[in-house]
Amino acid sequence: MKPFQILLFSALILTASTCTANSYVYVTNQGANTVSVIDTQNDKVIALINVGKGPVGVAVSPAQSRVYISNVEGQSISIIDSNTNLVIDELVTGGSPVGLAIAPDEKTLYVADWYDNHILAINIQNKQSQRFLSGGESPAGLIVSPDGKMLYVANRDSNDIAIISTESLQITSRVPVGKHPYGLDMSTDGNFLYVVNVLSNSVSIVDTKDGHSYTIPVGDHPYCVSASPDGTLLYVSNTQGDSISAIDLKTKKVIATIATGSYPEGIAYENDAHKIYVANWGDNSVSVIDASTNKLISNISTGIQSRAFGQFMMQAQH
After folding, report:
1. How far apart are CA 73 and CA 104, in angstroms?
2. Mean of the pLDDT values across residues 4-25?
3. How many Cβ atoms from other residues are within 10 Å of residue 68's Cβ?
4. CA nearest 43: which of 283, 311, 246, 296?
5. What is the pLDDT, as a whole number, of residue 3?
6. Tell me, what's the pLDDT at 207?
7. What residues pair up with 101 in beta bridges, in sequence order?
8. Rg of the chain (C-alpha set)
9. Distance between the two ends of the chain, CA-based, in angstroms?
10. Domains of the chain, residue spans
11. pTM above 0.90, yes or no
12. Among 310, 16, 15, 314, residue whose Cα is nearest residue 143
């Protein structure tokens, strides 16, 4: 093979490994110890992956083609190669790992230990390099600011959000929210944090510049939240309402309540086709909703007790 051909071939391989034509959904099935992989182009399950015991949280790393799964009962993190959909490593954490988040540079994995009340920061390139921080009571949802400088932690039993410097791993401030904050999302510019308050039946919108917040009532026992990429709409799963609430962020009002499967938990917005994916714990499925019409498109059978807590959508890379 000629040098030019070798270089061209190598470039094609590199492009194929770093660009994903379709978006993929990674759904943890806590009762089956598996992860269902859904291709959003045809909304079909294309793989079923055996992971650790009691999988709950998900974080995706597109550039490195990795998916991280927290196994709350197995006290571990399963690491999946998204190119092959095979588990390539199992990282023992101890405790009870639940929430996960990846830094924007994809160099650090953050893990919320639900029962031991601490956050674990793991160097992805050297997984034995780990730092610990006590952030609050029963930490659940995690998310990192787009600039990578701040980690936000929903402390369920402290009823607050801990804001942590990722450089020092020190808490810089706390923001009180509703009762039992759990799922988190953030606007693409990092200016607003969205917090689900389970026992308050509400979502808090926190201005990350000054800490001021605004609360919007939603359905019964909300759990997780996902914002549209243009920052105009917010979607909240209501576990005991078997529905999601669609919120207009300009008017700060619920504009639609959309029926889903039983006990919806994890929720994610697919950017290209503008579809919403909701994991239903109660009937082992994922509901797919058209964001342009707020209508249910289909329900996809997955596995026992589907949760998909966190950022479980591997968005298409163009």
Report:
1. 28
2. 53
3. 26
4. 296
5. 41
6. 97
7. 110
8. 19
9. 29
10. 23-314
11. yes
12. 310
Q: Which residue bears the tokens 């083609």?
A: 65
Q: Is the pLDDT of residue 65 over 80?
A: yes
* Single-letter amino acid, residue 122: I
Closest-CA residue to 146 (of 185, 176, 117)? 185
Q: Which two tokens stand for residue 3?
A: 């040098």
Mean pLDDT, the chain, whole residue set: 93
Q: Residue 274 pLDDT > 90, yes or no? A: yes
Could you give phi then psi for residue 5, rounded to 5 degrees?
-65, -40
Q: What is the predicted pLDDT for the residue at 18? A: 44
| Residue closest to 266 by CA, chosen among 256, 283, 281, 246 | 281
The dihedrals phi and psi of 9, each to the nearest 5 degrees, come to -65, -45
Question: Which own/partner pairs from 299-302 qualify as long-range (CB within 8 Å, at least 24 positions apart)?
Answer: 299/261, 300/38, 300/43, 300/44, 300/45, 301/45, 302/27, 302/29, 302/36, 302/38, 302/45
The first and second tokens of residue 107, run together, are 């160099």
For the 23-314 domain, the top CATH level (class) is mainly beta
Q: Which pLDDT tens digit goes with each residue over 98-141?
A: 999 999 999 999 999 988 999 999 999 888 878 888 878 999 99
Tell me the C-alpha to C-alpha distance, in Å, between residue 226 and each of 48, 154, 237. 24, 15, 9
Predicted pLDDT of residue 20: 61
Residue range 182-196: mean pLDDT, rounded: 98
